[in-house]
Design brief:
single chain, about 130 residues, alpha+beta, Arc Repressor Mutant, subunit A, three-stranded antiparallel beta sheet, 7 helices, 3 strands
Length: about 130
């Protein structure tokens, strides 16, 4: 099955979160900062890179990771990385609302293979569908 990420820059965060939470119900247990850390893990960042991105101490990232593993019920950082990788599409979609950087820039920085499939404009809405190769 192909993985798609749908980015609608005029939709509300609640819409994305409700879809995300219906697929992955445990993600709603996380605080905003924990979600940010999880999204950055899904992008392939290590603790040092995450601490730089979020401008916090590396020890804080370890604390966030510990809380995330407990809340998601996964055992250890390896399992957390697996969870992030398995749910990458939803987490990357969530990243659009957590980080001000344009989605394409986030995807390019992390060297995630994608291409723009559709660029739909009209009625004041801008929606872009990306395909992960």
């Amino acid at each position: 099955m192909d993985d798609f990420i749908y980015l609608n820059f005029t939709s509300t965060m609640e819409k994305v979160l409700s879809r995300s939470l219906s697929v992955y119900p445990t993600v709603h247990l996380l605080s905003r900062k924990e979600r940010e850390v999880l999204v950055l893990i899904a992008m392939g960042m290590n603790s040092k890179e995450i601490s730089i991105q979020l401008d916090v101490l590396p020890k804080s990232i370890d604390n966030y990771k510990n809380r995330i593993t407990k809340k998601l019920g996964v055992n250890g950082y390896g399992a957390l990385g697996n969870f992030a990788a398995e749910n990458r599409v939803v987490l990357l979609e969530l990243s659009i609302f957590l980080f001000p950087q344009p989605a394409t820039e986030i995807l390019k920085i992390r060297n995630l293979p994608f291409k723009e499939m559709e660029n739909i404009s009209g009625g004041g809405n801008r929606a872009v569908k990306y395909y992960f190769q």
